Amino acid sequence: MVRLGLWLICIVVCSGCFVHPEKNSGPDGYRDQAAMATLGEWIPDNIGEPGDTTDWRRIDLDAGDSVRVRVVVQRKLANVDVGLYEARGILLKHAVRPVIAHDGYRMDLHDELRDGTYYVRIRSLDRRATPYSIQIVSGPEARTTIHRDSNSPPPQ
Questions:
Q1: How many Cβ atoms are within 10 Å of 96's Cβ, its own excluded?
Q2: What is the edge-to-edge ordering of all strands in the sheet holding 106-113?
Q3: Averaged over 42-63, what is the pLDDT?
Q4: ∠ CA(150), CA(40), CA(145), 5° rounding?
Q5: CATH classification (class only), 23-143
Q6: Weakest mean pLDDT among 24-33, 44-53, 138-147
Q7: For the stretch 22-37, what's the b/e string if a residue is b when 16 or more beta carbons lie within 10 angstroms of its beta carbon?
Q8: Can you give the pTM of this predicted structure?
Q9: DSSP of the chain, one letter per residue?
Q10: Between residues 152 and 4, the one the model is more confident about
Q11: What pLDDT was estimated at residue 116?
């Protein structure tokens, strides 16, 4: 009876281990498969469902410039982080959404970048379904500091 109880506990504890974190992520679950981002365009997406905890976006710059990444998270109490990485995977900038932030809270990352390839990672830390929108801008618009709650994408 004790053995049966131990087996049941092992099965219950380990049952969450069978779904790989990016099994259902589609083509943007890893940096080498990052979806190309169109500069200036708001792109809606989802993360946090089983097998889809991370999304990657790719930016190619022909000349060095200011770049701003805006991410609007559409779920209250979402635990999300955003990172800006250079081509070899070195983290340049990072932001974590405060858990107590309101629905529609916007995270901003800004950096002066040289020409080359860069990546943005959006990751759900609590693995709960979280809709978000991302916009990446460069040039003069990226140099403008905007209040976090302004310029959010229209609700869908």
A1: 13
A2: 43-47, 130-138, 65-73, 106-113
A3: 85
A4: 40
A5: mainly beta
A6: 24-33
A7: beebeebbebeebeeb
A8: 0.74
A9: -HHHHHHHHHHHHHGGGGS-TTTT-GGGSSGGGPEEPPTT--EEEEE-BTTB-EEEEEEEESS-EEEEEEEEE-STT--EEEEEEETTS-EEEEEE--TTPPTT-EEEEEEEE-SEEEEEEEEESS---EEEEEEEEETHHHHS---TTSSPPPP-
A10: 4
A11: 93
Beta pairing partners, 44: 133
State how far the Cα of 33 lies from the Cα of 36, in Å rounded to an integer. Answer: 9
Which pair of tokens denotes residue 99? 């858990």
Amino acid at 74: Q
Tell me which residue of 137, 21, 27 sits closest to 84, measured CA to CA: 137
